[in-house]
Amino acid sequence: MKLHILVLLTLSLCFVSPPSFSGDSNGPQPAGKTGVWATESAPSGPDYLLGNSKSKHWGNRRIALMFVGHGEPAVVEDGFTPLSFPDGSLFGPHGVELGVPAEYQYTEWAAAYEEIATAISYIFGDTNGNGIIHELGIVPFGDVPGFFTWDAFKASIEANYAAVNNYSPHNDTIRDHVSSLDIDYLGTKIDIYLALLDDVPRIPDVVFELAQKNYDELVVVPMLVANSTHTDEITGQIEDVEHLLGSMEVLFAEPFFEVPFMRKSLGAGIVAMARYIAEQVPEDVEDHNIGVLLASHGTPYVPPFPEFGWVEGEIYSELIPTEDAFHDHIAAMLPWESRTGRMNYALPAIEDTLNDFENDGFTHVVVVPSAFPTAALHTMFDVATAATGHVVLPEEGIVQHERPSGMKVYYTSQGIADLEPGRSEFRNGLEFLGKIAVLEALEKTPVETYSTHCPTGELCVIIATEEELADPLSFMFYETTEGDWPAAYSTLALPPDWVLNVPQPVPDRFPARLRIPVDGNLIPLTGKTLDGARLGLVVASMDGQVVEPDDAVGFSTLTAVSGAETGLDVGRVEIGVADQVPPCDAGFICVSVTAGEVTGPDLKLMLYKTTEAQWPQDFLTLPTPSAVVTVTVPVPDSFPEHMRIPIEGNLFTFSGEELVGERLGLVVVTGVAANFVVEPTDARGFSNGTLVLDPALPMDYGETELYIPEGNPSDLNPYHPERLTGPLLWEEHILGEDGFVPGAIYLDVHDLDGDGIKDIVMVGEPHFEEPELPLTVLKLGVYYMNADMTIKSTEIIDQWSDIDPLFYSPWGVNVIEHSGAPMIIIGLNIPGLAPLEDGSGDVLSYHRDGGNWVRSVVRSNPDPEVTNYNAMIVVSADIDNDGDEDLALSGAFGTSSVGNWMENTGDISNPWIPHFLPIDPATDPYIRGTLAYKSADLNGDGYPEVVYNAMFDVANSNPPLYRGEIWMAINPGPGNWDTPWQKVVIDADNWAAADMWIHDFNSDGSPDLIANQIFNSTVTRYWNPGGDLTAEWVPEIVISGLTSPSDMWLADMDKDGLMDICSADHTAHRGFWHKNPGHLETGYWKPNLIFRNIRLPGDFAMLDMDGDGDEDWVGTTLTYGKAFIVEQVHPAESLVTTISLPDGFAGNITKLMVTMASSLPVLGPPAAVLADISNEDSDGDGIGDVDRILSPENDLILAFGDVGLDGDYHVVVALYMEGGGVFQPVPGVDYMAASAQMEFGQGQMVTELELALVPVP
To answer: Closest Cα to residue 932, out of 905, 951, 911?
Structure first.
């Protein structure tokens, strides 16, 4: 057998002759029977194969001409009948991987379900996330969504057939068309057959029949629109039965739309059908208000070329570009504008195209099924419901559907070949598929063409408005350029160059499509020459000769050249009342805000110190701003909103920096009430540029539009560095009911009930988020815990009340041992600090007396704005080295001193001895306070020093500015505690350190200091100079990029002997541990995620809560008013793998895959795909996702909690490079690494893999 693919322009096997049916009783069956059928023509004279490159002489040869159509079951039951072929082979099985029951696997509907499921797998891609795309199977076993099961498909097919009276005329109609064909050529015997792809008779059925006859040639004509996998399917089915064909030559014709004559024939039929349907449109409707929707099928597959994203081995189709070209051909044959709408699988959808017609002001739309020659289930159900909202049967003829806007839609479910002249055009096209282009040109005469372009001498414009227009429309024309229009004319300061001589009446409906004659109707006003001028149009609804500020005005979206072959098509004009933008005065910050959607009640302005190069991409996650404008504006009922806010007195600077003279970017946000707590999906808008703050000038940021992002980069990319947990795995335990301690912000962990299990004590301040809450929400509460990290019981120890208002604005909490028992210490807020500004700074203690907690006052400040010794952060240390815990106090206002402490007496009846020192007279008078943070022995004398954050107002600053310093007070030792302690300034510029810790990082015997800075999102290590504490403490930033680092903890998280840093990233709602690279290494410490999306985490501790020898996170969530534990876990099914690149690695990475295989080398699909990371920039941060996490300098550690397999497997890592493989690595291009075989399911597996270039065999 020889297979030939022939271009139909050179194939001439099919010419006209009268038909006759075969008299062979064992041959093909007549049309209408369920068996195979054919028509045969009698031989007459010699024959020639015109267009064959060898000019072969045929003589009296016999030709079998087989048309192959799609087909579909006539009644739904036909599709559920098991099928077999004449040689006894079965049709199937189909849909096994999709769960089709065995009794249906050999039916047409199973094959159709498999085909549609395959298409859906291409639409959804890697739905199950296992790294294998287009996987045929229901999620999680494949990429077909769970809504498309066999049961769901079967039910929908049965319902659809029921809706059309359980009959599709498609097959019968196609048989009628093919049986009518008269094809003959110079004595050649040509018999015509029909085979179907989706019903009987199928290609094997027909070939089995025609193989019984003595044919010399089989010519196959696909009744398909374009080249696709369907055409390959036809070839494949012929090859499957080639053993039946012997020496018969087989030639394949091209699909319909590849043949100009067929395109013209079908196009003529479609145009005729459009005219037929359009007869229902009222005669007084102008052509430019009528649209034609060409309804087609669509496909999810792309042409088989790399530029379309096609990959070798994937299903392909040239349908979309072929169809688009065909529709362009039809457009020139219609007097109305036409647009494409597709039934499914591809855009634009029919519904979307109808919406577009509606939005553009069309009043009547004709829907023509351009890809369906006959009535079928698609035309009766799918296209019909999309166009009219209900099923339409062929016998109903043309139906009319009115949409809510008033636009009328006209439709019939009949196909283009069901009506004349479409029927004749279709049949002529089939008969002349073999004619050469010359014969086609002689046979067909050009169809009269029309243009939907604007006619010469007319103005064509779409007018739209949402205003109630009372005055007529004046049309004003300006000579302009495309670059200047319309911005240079927005003020209408210049007179128009021409005006339309008569204002036009307001249309009855909008949008309105107008065609207005302009020849002789334009009045020149400026003496310019009209011919050849490029014109822009202004339309104004006005009463008079001058446009007033409150007149509705609109500018054309296009410009047009007068005197061109087409008319003046200026596109669309949206008419509206001009928005009056108020001026921006000196000393004001101004921005005009527009928004389609917001996520909060107010518009808030945040300012960031930046450079033009950094703005806005470095601030997309909205870290803590440099400043906020304290005045907010309620979200208006309509936009734009012109915000004009004076800077003086309304700018609050978080950073403490002087902002005058600094370059600032502006962000407008809506969201939660707190000024700088913005959720990743809160609406925000960034200024188009940056401005330098100068109080003598206006800060006018122009316009900004709010948008709602999908999330931060780490939300969009599951392999973002801020999503990776390093070598550790975690499990969250959220404790108790919401609101147990509202606004829970500080905690301590201590065994309070003597059962040997750590309990959790916490205080709350919810007024940060909800300032209107009553004071009764202020509480001190305890979780008494079980060993399994569940709550045994709870207790509220203290609470604000009208009767007992002492517990006001609690802040710090710590549990110490006093008199041999636990004592809870609470520090209250000082005056003037948010959120409650009437604090006292008192220090409270609670100890048990019998079964009750007894409150005592450790320190009271009767005149708190003058004398204030407090414990806002409760710092405990053995100041006097006598074996018990003392309290290091903070100072404020006139007592902003250092060296203040409360000595633990060990006597509960007289528990404390105060040691208070006055403020140093040399202290900056603008000091607000000295906040004690940590205490430790820093010089090795056995007596701990105390480290403070000193806070100052900046003198005469407006807006108010603040600054901070880190101080250390050197413990003077016994006998000197009541004399001034020596103060050392460790850092003269650290405003608002939120936490500090002390540890000897370089093992030199001198503990170093770690301090964060919440407003510049950094953590700094200060190296202890050793010996002389007054020498310079050299700073080194070790962590950067957090949104708002608040609390910290030091712990050796990965047990490598180095102390790591744990951080709560407060407003980003997450927690990290940062790996210590070693004190000899420089640069930032690598973050590893512990948890995310626990809102506003507060104070925390890293302690072994479950007794398994590792650290767990015990913390609070301010928003939910309770505690939580994030347990470090080591699942038996887990894997930790470290992936590294070789030295000297270079090249462009395309993808990284981590898989498991039962043996090496890997043959076939992997046993499991653990990670499939494309190097695309999925999170929009400008860096490829793999490049971000893996480089020669940066190893990648991935932890998998459950690999999903038990038994012996290798871990295999593949790195695909540009020019390399997709699934199978290419030697010499891609990189691989594999572990030894490991037994999974018996404990956590750990492996280190260095990638190496795949060797060339």
So the answer is: 951
Q: How many CA atoms lie within 13 A of 461 on its CB side?
A: 31
493 residue type, one letter: A
User: Helix, strand or coil for residue 371?
Assistant: coil
3-state secondary structure 542-591: CCCCCCCCCCEEEEECCCEECCCCCCEEEEEEEEEECCCCCCCCCCEEEE
Which residue, 915, 905, 922, is CA-closest to 946? 915
Q: Give me the sheet containing 1070-1075, strands edge to edge.
A: 1045-1051, 1060-1065, 1070-1075, 1086-1092
User: Left, alpha or beta for 107 (phi > 0: left; psi -120 to 50: alpha)?
Assistant: beta
Structure tokens at 874: 């409760």
Which secondary-structure segment (H or E) carries 123? helix 108-124
280 forms beta bridges with none
Alpha carbon dihedral 353, 354, 359, 360, in 10-degree steps, equals 70
Tell me how far apart the alpha carbons of residues 186 and 59 are, in angstroms, rounded to a whole number. Answer: 9
Q: Map out the domains of the chain with their CATH numbers.
A: 63-252 (3.40.50.1400), 260-415 (3.40.50.1400), 458-576 (no CATH), 588-710 (2.60.40), 730-1128 (2.130.10.130), 1135-1253 (no CATH)
Query: Which pair of structure tokens corresponds to residue 607?
Result: 């300012």
Position 1203: which residue type? V
The structure tokens 């398994």 sit at 1108
1073's CB contacts (< 8 A; 6+ apart) are 726, 728, 1051, 1053, 1060, 1061, 1062, 1063, 1087, 1088, 1090
With contact defined as beta carbons under 8 Å apart, do 170 and 376 qualify?
yes
* DSSP secondary structure, 300-365, as one string: S---SSGGGT--TTS--B-HHHHHHHHHHHHHTT-SSEEEEEESSSSSSBHHHHHHHHHHTT-SEE
Closest by CA to 323, choosing from 337, 307, 343, is 343
Residues 6+ apart with CB under 8 A from 615: 608, 665, 686, 687, 689, 690
* Tokens coding 36: 């195979």
Give φ, ψ of 906 to 5 degrees.
Answer: 80, 5
Task: Write out the two tokens for 1010.
Answer: 């770690």
Any idea which residue has 């840093």 for tokens?
1061
Confidence band for 343, pLDDT divided at 50, 70 and 90: confident
Bridge partners of residue 1232, in order along the sequence: 1214, 1252
Query: Residue range 51-75: average pLDDT?
Result: 63
How deeply is 487 buried, as exposed, middle or buried, from its count of CB atoms within 10 A (0-12, 13-18, 19+)? exposed
Burial of 260 (0-12, 13-18, 19+ CB in 10 A): middle
pTM for this entry: 0.61
| Residue partners of 1032: CB distance under 8 A and separation at least 6 | 1025
- Evaluate whether 501 touches 521 at the Cβ level (below 8 Å): yes
Are 340 and 331 spatial neighbours (Cβ–Cβ below 8 Å)? no
Token reading at 638? 């309509």
Give me the numbers of helices (H) and strands (E) for the chain, helices first please: 14, 66
Each residue's pLDDT tens digit, 1077-1101: 998 877 789 999 999 989 899 999 9
In angstroms and rounded to an integer, the radius of gyration of the C-alpha atoms of the chain is: 40
Helix (H) or strand (E) holding 204: helix 203-210
pLDDT (tens digit, 9 = 90+) per residue, 7-29? 322 222 222 222 222 223 222 22
In three-state secondary structure terms, 873 is strand
Confidence class for position 915, pLDDT limits 50, 70, 90: very high
Distance CA(811)–CA(802), nearest Å, equals 20
Contact 786, 757 (CB under 8 A): yes
Residues 6+ apart with CB under 8 A from 1107: 787
- N-to-C CA span, the chain: 38
What's the rounded Cα separation, in Å, for the pair 906 and 736? 35
Read off the tokens for 853: 């907690």
